[in-house]
């Protein structure tokens, strides 16, 4: 048998292997009433970590509720909530070292919040003002933070997957004791980048954790119409990764699985695929109406599995949380989000020059010509560009903005 042939034995009659021959169980630790399943083992967690995770849950609920309403009011152009999926990204980020790199898709604001991203930075990004770290050049919710090791989000689906493998290969080459976690939905697993990324990770043995949020829908396409196999986890096995499936609404299961995955990735350079089975309780985005492709009855069944309520029940059983703390935290987060939103929307937008900065050390002649033509166009039709034309007018009053 050659070194390239898998040791599955030799047969002399056809034997076909199907998806049913590879059964991947689902890890569950916490029941909905807050009790552990018999025989379940807790992850590494203490009161401080548990309360931080739960407080992040409450913050994200407050942020999502307020900013979706802001989009409906026309104050921002776009938003995506992660309601129902908080245990997946927050629980897994809690298992990481602060210097492990995060490659997010676009529903992992909880991961960034857990690492301490300031509320004003969330708001500045969504309002694309001049304090936005991305200088107003991204859609809302496309965050990024160099300080928090959170790679800037890009809209094209799945592109972060091979990028994560490459970044992890760099960590391995430098001998760093860190890993990369890469988030994506099960819909993104249908992109070619998914297969290229896993294959590279398996061959090169990169310290990468591929974290799939299987929430049942790729926008409006249910999983039954996306693939015929047993979900996403078996694909990792095919590419030489360790794979595990967890209840994505059970934050303790997510935390434990990711803690173990990180050990494999960092200590053994063994890439891992985690498939978290969860559900998107909200719409895909502020542009989506889920009533057109799923029933209220289905949604209600999943509301009964709310990950936030499940974890709260466990905290209460531990004596680490009570209703007074709950009310105070919710009120505090709502007020903070509202105050930050009102402040951010009053801040001026980035100067139009920021469109051509940062790509080159000095903008080349053709970009300067295009910028000049753009400014002339805005000045000619100021009523169509009220925010930008205002800044150009202000610049002209001081002899700038030419």
TrEMBL record:
UniProt xrefs under Gene3D superfamilies: 3.40.50.970
A GO term for molecular function: branched-chain 2-oxo acid dehydrogenase activity
KW Nuclease (keyword) present: no
Keywords assigned: Oxidoreductase, Thiamine pyrophosphate
SUPFAM superfamilies: Thiamin diphosphate-binding fold (THDP-binding)
InterPro entries: Alpha-ketoacid_DH_E1_comp (IPR050771), DH_E1 (IPR001017), THDP-binding (IPR029061)
Swiss-Prot/TrEMBL catalytic activity: N(6)-[(R)-lipoyl]-L-lysyl-[protein] + 3-methyl-2-oxobutanoate + H(+) = N(6)-[(R)-S(8)-2-methylpropanoyldihydrolipoyl]-L-lysyl-[protein] + CO2
Cofactors, names only: thiamine diphosphate
Residues covered by the Dehydrogenase E1 component domain: 56-349
EC number: 1.2.4.4
GO biological process, one term: branched-chain amino acid catabolic process
PANTHER family noted in UniProt: 2-OXOISOVALERATE DEHYDROGENASE SUBUNIT ALPHA, MITOCHONDRIAL
Task performed by this protein: The branched-chain alpha-keto dehydrogenase complex catalyzes the overall conversion of alpha-keto acids to acyl-CoA and CO(2). It contains multiple copies of three enzymatic components: branched-chain alpha-keto acid decarboxylase (E1), lipoamide acyltransferase (E2) and lipoamide dehydrogenase (E3).
Family designation: Belongs to the BCKDHA family.
Protein name per the record: 2-oxoisovalerate dehydrogenase subunit alpha
């Amino acid at each position: 048998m050659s070194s390239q042939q898998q040791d599955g034995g030799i047969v002399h009659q056809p034997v076909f292997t199907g998806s049913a021959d590879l059964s991947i169980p689902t890890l569950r630790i916490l029941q909905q009433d807050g009790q552990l399943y018999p025989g379940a083992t807790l992850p590494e967690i203490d009161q401080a970590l548990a309360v931080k995770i739960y407080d992040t849950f409450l913050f994200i609920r407050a942020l999502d509720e307020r900013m979706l309403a802001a989009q409906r009011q026309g104050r921002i152009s776009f938003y995506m909530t992660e309601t129902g999926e908080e245990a997946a990204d927050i629980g897994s980020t809690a298992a990481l070292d602060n210097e492990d790199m995060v490659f997010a898709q676009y529903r992992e604001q909880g991961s960034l919040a857990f690492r301490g991203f300031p509320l004003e930075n969330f708001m500045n990004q969504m309002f694309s003002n001049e304090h936005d770290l991305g200088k107003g050049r991204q859609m809302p919710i496309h965050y990024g933070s160099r300080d928090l090791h959170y790679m800037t989000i890009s809209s094209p689906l799945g592109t972060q997957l091979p990028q994560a493998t490459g970044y992890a290969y760099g960590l391995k080459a430098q001998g760093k004791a860190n890993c990369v976690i890469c988030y994506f939905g099960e819909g993104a697993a249908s992109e070619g980048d998914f297969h290229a990324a896993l294959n590279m990770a398996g061959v090169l043995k990169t310290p990468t954790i591929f974290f799939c949020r299987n929430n049942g829908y790729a926008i409006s396409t249910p999983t039954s119409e996306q693939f015929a196999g047993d979900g996403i986890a078996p694909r990792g096995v095919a590419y030489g990764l360790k794979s595990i499936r967890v209840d994505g609404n059970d934050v303790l299961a997510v935390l434990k699985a990711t803690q173990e995955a990180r050990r494999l990735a960092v200590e053994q350079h063994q890439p891992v695929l985690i498939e978290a089975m969860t559900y998107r309780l909200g719409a895909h985005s502020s542009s989506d109406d889920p009533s057109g492709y799923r029933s209220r009855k289905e949604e209600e069944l999943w509301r009964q599995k709310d990950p936030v309520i499940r974890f709260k029940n466990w905290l209460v059983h531990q004596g680490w949380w009570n209703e007074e703390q709950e009310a105070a935290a919710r009120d505090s987060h709502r007020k903070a989000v509202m105050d930050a939103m009102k402040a951010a929307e009053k801040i001026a937008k980035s100067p139009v020059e920021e469109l051509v900065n940062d790509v080159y050390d000095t903008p080349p002649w053709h970009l300067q010509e295009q910028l000049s033509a753009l400014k002339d166009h805005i000045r000619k039709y100021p009523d169509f560009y009220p925010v930008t034309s205002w800044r150009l007018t202000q610049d002209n009053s001081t002899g700038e903005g030419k």
